[in-house]
């Protein structure tokens, strides 16, 4: 039956949420200028040189002194002091590529979304929630052999090495990834064939395992022959149907796809082997803001598309970076435009040192409503929370209970760990002053948790 919508009264129920913006910047307007020339140290760098992974690796910045030498007068002296003070209290070491430095708006670095993710400032850091944990997802507890996490019945996470081309200050694996910091002595996992053989033997012994995520660290930092070795060993196991190479690289150093031909060719050979065996080989990457996607990103993606390599994106929801409807919608549409499939938007994990980036669960619930319907359903990401304590990924709309006042949400995961309840805690800065005070008192803290678990 057809309905004449011209004669249907609109609903009159109001909502307390602000209306979504209808004016979005063009998601197809990718940067094509020589943006890096605004950085004093790169002012004379040609496009040909800047588009190589060798230049990016050679000039990657790893400490405030190098950053000052690179930026010159672009940032005031106080900025470097603020950065150093933050690094003294951060779980992740500093490592940032020339590509990302060139994309930061140095006219307003305090509010720039790319700077926010990679260069911490002590003046912006918030006190940690009292229940934060370094390994908040309990990956080590679900590790049957070193460097392998087996939580879901048919999927495992393999960590062949623990370095990255760039270090995100919000890394969920900051207990292991990167160099030691004043705050964290990292878990030691050797990059060795002997350790890998342990992982291969375990995977082969588990007939229910079908899906392996190869992460780290970052797959970008695997040598080409190692990338191919791992992929071929897994694909040739009868039980394995799917492998995923996880890398932040397309966001932070797309030049590698364009200039490291040995690495890109190795990835291509693994994908071709997968197709010949009727198995799935994909790349999982990680963009958080539309400004991270440029014409160089598109050129790198075009190479992968031409080679039949599919790429999915796992975004992290972050306060002041992408926690508004316009930014998140533009990100999703821009990803789709360059043929990156928006797969997940994660709630920020409860790791130390980055409380300024966390949002309450309610923010993710609101954003999902705005993003859904803004583009095709197959390009609409699922908004999920990786339940602290090893509960796995849960839809943000699926808590058993959610108390907005205390900030406690309760999730169950019957297919992963039946009978258990998993708690997520909103950041204290999102709560009222009275509730923040309650969290400083152990007895009150226990009472709030007991109430959330239905024990009181």
Automatic annotation (TrEMBL):
Region annotation (Disordered) ranges: 1-24
A molecular function (GO) term: L-lysine 2,3-aminomutase activity
Catalytic activity, EC: 5.4.3.2
N6-(pyridoxal phosphate)lysine, modified sites: 393
Cofactor: pyridoxal 5'-phosphate; [4Fe-4S] cluster
InterPro entries named among the record's database cross-references: Aldolase_TIM, Lys_aminomutase/Glu_NH3_mut, rSAM, rSAM_sf
Top-level lineage group: Bacteria
UniProt keyword list: 4Fe-4S, Iron, Iron-sulfur, Isomerase, Metal-binding, Pyridoxal phosphate, S-adenosyl-L-methionine
Positions in coiled-coil regions: none
Gene3D superfamilies tied to this protein: Aldolase class I
The UniProt record lists the keyword Nucleotide-binding: no
Family the UniProt entry places it in: Belongs to the radical SAM superfamily. KamA family.
NCBIfam families in alphabetical order: KamA family radical SAM protein (TIGR00238)
The protein's name: Lysine 2,3-aminomutase YodO family protein
């Amino acid at each position: 039956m057809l309905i004449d919508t011209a004669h249907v009264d609109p609903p009159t129920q109001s909502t307390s949420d602000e209306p979504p913006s209808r004016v979005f910047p063009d998601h197809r307007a990718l940067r094509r200028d020589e943006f890096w020339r605004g950085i004093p140290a790169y002012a004379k760098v040609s496009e040909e040189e800047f588009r190589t992974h060798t230049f990016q690796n050679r000039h990657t910045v790893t400490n405030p002194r190098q950053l000052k030498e690179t930026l010159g007068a672009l940032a005031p002296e106080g900025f470097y002091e603020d950065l150093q003070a933050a690094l003294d209290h951060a779980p992740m070491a500093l490592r940032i590529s020339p590509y990302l430095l060139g994309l930061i708006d140095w006219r307003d670095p305090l509010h720039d979304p790319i700077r926010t993710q990679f260069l911490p400032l002590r003046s912006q850091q918030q006190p940690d929630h009292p229940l934060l944990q370094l390994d908040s997802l309990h990956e080590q507890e679900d590790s049957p052999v070193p460097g392998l996490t087996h939580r879901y019945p048919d999927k495992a996470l393999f960590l062949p090495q623990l370095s990255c081309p760039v270090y995100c200050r919000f890394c969920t694996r900051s207990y292991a990834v990167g160099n030691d910091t004043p705050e964290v002595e990292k878990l030691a996992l050797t990059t060795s064939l002997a350790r890998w053989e342990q992982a291969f033997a375990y995977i082969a012994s588990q007939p229910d395992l079908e899906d392996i995520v190869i992460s780290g660290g970052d797959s970008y930092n695997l040598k080409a022959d190692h990338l191919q070795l791992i992929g071929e060993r897994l694909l040739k196991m009868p039980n394995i149907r799917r492998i995923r190479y996880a890398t932040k690289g397309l966001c932070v150093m797309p030049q590698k796809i364009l200039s490291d031909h040995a690495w890109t060719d190795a990835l291509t050979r693994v994908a071709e082997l997968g197709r010949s065996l009727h198995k799935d080989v994909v790349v999982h990457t990680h963009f958080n803001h539309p400004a991270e996607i440029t014409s160089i990103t598109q050129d790198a993606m075009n190479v992968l598309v031409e080679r039949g390599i599919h790429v999915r994106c796992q975004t992290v929801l972050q306060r002041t970076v992408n926690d508004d409807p316009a930014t998140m919608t533009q990100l999703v549409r821009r990803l789709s435009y360059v043929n990156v499939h928006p797969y997940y938007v994660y709630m920020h994990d409860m790791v130390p040192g980055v409380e300024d980036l966390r949002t309450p669960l309610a923010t993710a619930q609101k954003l999902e409503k705005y993003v859904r319907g803004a583009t095709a359903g197959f390009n609409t990401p699922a908004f999920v929370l990786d339940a602290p304590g090893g509960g796995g990924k849960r839809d943000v709309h699926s808590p058993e209970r959610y108390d907005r006042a205390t900030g406690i949400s309760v999730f169950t995961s019957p297919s992963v760990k039946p009978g258990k309840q998993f708690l997520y805690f909103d950041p204290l800065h999102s709560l009222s002053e009275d509730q923040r005070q309650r969290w400083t008192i152990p007895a009150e803290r226990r009472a709030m948790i007991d109430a959330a678990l239905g024990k009181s």
